[in-house]
Amino acid sequence: MLDPITMTEDDGIAKLILNRPAVFNAFDHDMIEHFARHVIMLAVDDNVRGVVISGEGKGFCAGGDIKWVSEFPLGPSVAFHKLAASFHQAILEIRRMPKPVIAAINGIAAGGGFSLALACDFRVMARSATLRQAYTSNGLCIDGGGTFTLPRIVGLARALEIAGFDAPISSEKALTWGLVTRVVDDGHALKEAVNMAHELSNSSLNSFGWAKQLLTDSFNTAFEAHIERERLGLCSCAEHPDGKEGIQAFVDRRKPIFKS
Known about the structure:
Mean pLDDT: 95
Shape: globular
CATH class of the largest domain: Alpha Beta
Strand order of the largest sheet: 1-2-3-5-7-10
Largest sheet: 6 strands, mixed
Low-confidence stretches: none
Distance between the termini: 39 Å
Strand content: 15-25%
Number of domains: 2
CATH architecture of the largest domain: Alpha-Beta Complex
């Protein structure tokens, strides 16, 4: 039996590969539990400086396995409750970990796969891949943080368009709308995402972590409270070895070398 998630780590970059290619990496309960455990572990692993998520085969992730849901003995509502518990835990870990998480969208990303991609910090998309929220076409409600991240990326009006009409979104349109960071030729999404992760890993992860946290929380914090958190973050960064190195490098007119 295939491991539903494969994880490898090389030179500080972890690759999480969704591994149910026969169903375009749709997740049942076993798969999403494995995924959540891996994400939790990577979030606290100091040897890992970046995480790349992709899918095996022709798809990134087709979301929840509807066949598994339809056959669940206690009914679809309980099935989705179980799936969402682990899925949402993984999404929260992705948004909270102070290191970059990059989605390498090698093929279709639909439903929960769409929400998972949006939860990542950056998205690299293969040219022939497509995005689709998919939930509403099946009479379901968007989850996985999709209703939070989507309007913040594309705006409320376009988010409603995506939710209402559920048309497939090409890589060209996704790039134009700001849904993805880069579009690359087919077969190169994973490699490009890993290269991005390496580039980011050479910067200050402490600084990136603060920026990620503040930007994420900015939508839920009053302005006065938020700028106070910015001041606390700035002072904390200044006392961190990366901050000290960055300041000294600026004074010395050289490129900083971040080691932490």
